[in-house]
Amino acid sequence: MTLLSLRSVDAYYGRAQILHGVSLDVAAGERVAILGRNGVGKTTIVNACLGVAKVRQGRIAFNGREIGAIRHFTAARAGIAVVPQGRRIVPGLTVRENLLLGGAVNRKGAWTLPVVFDLFPVLRERAEVPGTALSGGQQQMLAIGRALMANPDLLVLDEPSEGLAPVIVDALADTLRALAHTGTAILLIEQNFGLVHRVAERYYVLSKGSIVEAGRLAGLSMETLKKHVAV
Fold this sequence. Notes:
Elements: E1 2-13, E2 16-27, E3 31-35, H1 42-49, E4 54-62, E5 65-66, H2 75-78, E6 80-83, H3 95-102, H4 113-119, H5 121-125, H6 136-148, E7 154-158, H7 166-179, E8 185-189, H8 193-199, E9 202-207, E10 210-216, H9 222-229
């Protein structure tokens, strides 16, 4: 079943057109990556889904319904949880409070505080520590855990490897692969080829606001993937 569908989407910020006829799909439980250089419009795909960027042409549907009524502040209730670039841990709140904030939408599902703590034991150990006092890798765990607390159908991660040491990126890849068994779909916006290669099942390449390449990652080498993205 198709969970998220974009068809010939043109998206703008004010008068500036960023996306040009973008079409893509994410199936329920699927892991899909969007690749491309900085400034090509990757984040705008997410912003178009959340009403932050204005869609003037085309169609976006989520769970079979037109997505026009969804906004960034109602997305979690609708089943879309976003881990934004920069993580945006809430200052002044502990790790536990940040996680509980993610669950405030009260969507039913398997993700509870104990389950998130089982996935990220370090968050249980530091539950009463201010979220902003964690290391970069731990903050990324907290941001993902907070998003999962909303029990989303689709988890969107915007450049999750940014600023993380390679060993932490490896751990992140293992975590995201583990999520595949929970039925939560993943849309991964990323420039780290290693992370994409280990996590995603399919990929789209964005260049100058348009999809220029798409395919499956099974059997595709890292070197070939890099060549596909060198646009």
